[in-house]
Specification:
Strand order of the largest sheet: 8-9-10-13-15-18
CATH class of the largest domain: Alpha Beta
Radius of gyration: 23 Å
Length: 395
């Protein structure tokens, strides 16, 4: 080997060898149930710590492969460090996702050390977990002799080339943006470490409209650095971040359409047992136990419409109000945007449901109905997640 050949750069982050396990369910924000593989025909149940409070509903589905490491401290013996999964999109390839959101700040430090973020090429890290207002900011930099606050966010939601953050409502993330905006122009920024093949980035106005609006309001005051890196999982069973990050564009025209707060929604309702309910002018109807998905729309004020659906004890106006009053659980899934398509969305849900309720919620259109029944929680199934994701991208 030639003596002057350059050594390959060290990975930005590298884990110890990891063990595969099968995800079974989420116990709380920081613990997951899984099955640990032990040889060809042996397996045992295990509970693993997961240092990521994100929802990750499109990935954390029963049967997905987790990557575990022994945990040296704490009550649980294992930590879910990563996962491997594949979407059922045409041409889609398996993705590797790093789950420890806290350690993503170390990836950011390495990017700064290697001068891989050109706008921050003159910056050096001088502090970590710095108090600013009511928040703690990941990194304090010295940039041209002046202090610069940099918050680091791990972004795992990437679909059809678009990265979205956060994937669930996060008051903490909104406070971070507002705190950094108060630092003044040129003195603060947010680095989004995007895990996946993306070319665009947006705040997720579907899941967290308040964060998205804070993001837009801070546009002139702080810097945004969305950078895409693809973690890999090698034959040595180590997960790595390596290579050069790709800067992502922010399509502000799409952003403006999303924060306008109009669009479609899916309302998920759970009936623990069969009920006979008065459903508007159609009279009493029998509803078997299970999960129900209702498709609705609001050209403006989508947030207010959803808030009304979630409330109990209101005067019944729509057919869905009677089912909402009887439901044992309810969850709203907004699909914000300017494109109309309530009946098209209803057709997409009808194609994957177990049953539908004739003419329910379709008094002003020619659809067979806008209410659909599932025997089990549809959020825990890939087909429902695919419909939700596809429609969020279409709008």
């Amino acid at each position: 080997m030639r003596a002057n050949m350059r050594k390959a750069p060290a990975p930005l982050l590298e884990t110890e060898p990891l063990r595969p396990a099968v995800f079974r369910g989420r116990l709380n924000r920081f613990a997951v149930a899984c099955v640990l593989r032990e040889g060809r025909n042996r397996a045992r149940a295990a509970t693993a710590y997961m240092a990521n409070p994100g929802r990750m509903g499109e990935m954390l589905l029963p049967g997905v492969e987790l990557l575990l490491a022994p945990r040296r401290r704490g009550r649980l013996a294992w930590e879910a460090v990563g996962l491997r999964w594949r979407r059922r999109w045409p041409g889609d390839s398996p993705r590797v996702v790093f789950l420890n959101a806290a350690r993503t700040a170390r990836v950011a430090e390495r990017l700064l050390e290697e001068r891989l973020i050109p706008p921050l090429a003159d910056a050096t890290v001088v502090g970590r977990e710095v108090r600013a207002g009511e928040s703690r900011i990941d990194l304090l930099l010295s940039r041209g002799g002046a202090p610069y606050l940099l918050e680091v966010k791990s972004c795992t939601l990437v679909e059809h080339g678009l990265a979205l953050f956060p994937d669930a409502r996060s008051a903490r993330a909104r406070r971070h943006v507002e705190t950094l905006a108060a630092a003044g122009a040129g003195g603060a920024g947010v680095l989004f470490v995007v895990q996946g093949r993306a070319d665009r980035f947006l705040p997720d106005f579907h899941n967290d409209l308040e964060f998205a609006r804070a993001f837009g309001a801070a546009r002139a005051a702080i810097d945004y650095f969305p950078l895409a890196l693809e973690p890999t999982f090698g034959a040595d069973r180590r997960l790595r971040f390596e290579g050069r990050p790709r800067p992502l564009a922010i399509p502000w025209d799409t952003f403006e359409a999303g924060v306008a707060d109009g669009g479609l929604y899916l309302l998920l309702l759970r009936l623990a047992r069969a009920r006979r309910l008065e459903a508007g002018a159609s009279g009493p109807r029998d509803f078997p136990g299970g999960w129900y998905a209702y498709v609705g729309s609001a050209r403006r004020g989508l947030g207010k419409r959803i808030e009304r659906h979630l409330r109990r004890g209101k005067r019944h106006h729509w057919q869905i109000d009677a089912l909402r009053a009887a439901a044992d659980g309810v969850k709203a899934l907004p699909i914000r945007g300017t494109r109309r398509g309530e009946c098209e969305l209803a057709a997409a849900v009808r194609a994957i449901c177990d049953d539908s309720v004739p003419r329910f919620g379709a008094s002003d259109c020619r659809c067979p109905g806008h209410l659909f029944r599932f025997a089990a929680d549809p959020l825990q199934t890939a087909p429902f997640q695919q419909v939700l994701t596809l429609w969020r991208h279409r709008l």
